[in-house]
Amino acid sequence: MSLAGRDLVHIRDFSAGEMQGLFDLAEEMMATLPAGNDLLSGRLLATAFYEPSTRTRLSFEAAMLRCGGKVVGFADPMTSSVRKGETIADTARILAGYADAIVMRHAVEGAAKVAADYVDVPVINAGDGGHQHPTQTLTDLFTIRQLRGQIHGLHIGLCGDLKFGRTVHSLLTALCDYDVRITCIAPDSLQLPEQYLPADREVQITADLEAAIGDLDVLYMTRVQKERFENPADYEAVRGVYVLDSGTLRGAKEDLIILHPLPRVDEISYEVDTDHRAAYFGQAAYGVPVRMALLAVVLGAVETSHLPAAPPEAREIRSDVRCPNEKCANFREAYTRPEMEVVSREPVILRCAYCEHEMRLK
Ligand code: NCD
């Protein structure tokens, strides 16, 4: 199936095969840099950033401009009509009247899905609360592929805030399509929420980075997501829980690659930046060709060749139960239609299509 016109709201919206095609195209895009190309000349991208961003917003802008396109948008929602109480659906419909695609970052889980449900232009999720960040995952996988040749066979450690870290949630889901070993390294209070644990594969769980590091091929460090904690004392209890420094790296493989979606706070010491295994700044730079490829395909300027995706499985959806997760768009925006997938009938367990929150019906 063509990627033209498609949304990227959840990492599962693209199959592994479709991602491979995108990565091949990203390599071609890289070859056009820095001059770029004119694949998207005459096309306009709208960026709606309701939360702070440096890399994601500017790499999308850079990608659009490097492909000869143009960009409008806001980075501070307080200067837009959001301040007057405009809903996500209405803002999205206005932007769709102006631009050919929308990139949205929002603190509410499922916000990009709401936008995608209300407009016909492609919507790309640039981060929705603590839920998903699919384009960071494309960048992460592309980086691993560029540096290691392939993803299969690697042992990948995800370390830090696995509870609130949206980049980790998307990445872990995508990694399940590969033959890799996965180790989740976090203190109990920041471990991966159960709903993100893959049902069909073993994931190792530990809090001990020093013990785990020696066996890893990729170490994916993350920042403790201060802004997602409801209680500041809970954040204080875990801040600085991991600091990767040359001491920690002593037991690591020589060809380890150290990734981080950035920004870092204090979880990677500056002395690591000059270690040959540090790959996070290069990783951020790969965000541009990856997003060039993504924009080019969803805007229909290029067709990638890839294996056809498996047809979607039939799912039973209930729209009579609203999501109880206060951070979810379905909970917060009353006009949105509940979409609860029945994942079990006995007992009845429902999973929200906006935020993936699971609830058990009594
Ligand atoms: C991440 C994000 O916004 O989730 N940043 C990014 O987009 N590269 C990671 C973070 O903020 O810690």
Written overview of the protein:
The protein is α/β, with parallel strands linked by helices and 362 residues long. The chain has 11 helices and 13 strands. It has helices spanning 16-32, 55-66, 88-98, 111-118, 134-148, 166-175, 209-212, 232-238, 246-249, 280-298, 329-332, and strands at residues 44-49, 70-74, 101-106, 123-128, 155-159, 181-185, 204-206, 218-221, 257-259, 317-318, 340-345, 348-352, 358-360. The protein has a 5-stranded parallel β-sheet with strand order 7-6-5-8-9, covered by helices on one side. Strands 2-1-3-4 form a 4-stranded parallel β-sheet, with helices on both faces. It has a 4-stranded antiparallel β-sheet with strand order 10-11-12-13, with no helix packed on it. β3, α4 (111-118) and β4 (123-128) form a beta-alpha-beta unit. α1 (16-32) packs across α10, α2 crosses α10 (280-298) and α5 packs across α6. The longest helix is centred in the last third of the chain and has 19 residues, at 280-298. It starts with 15 loop residues before the first helix and ends with a strand. The chain binds N-carbamoyl-L-aspartate. N-carbamoyl-L-aspartate is lined by residues 55-56, 127, 133, 136, 166-167, 223, 261-262.
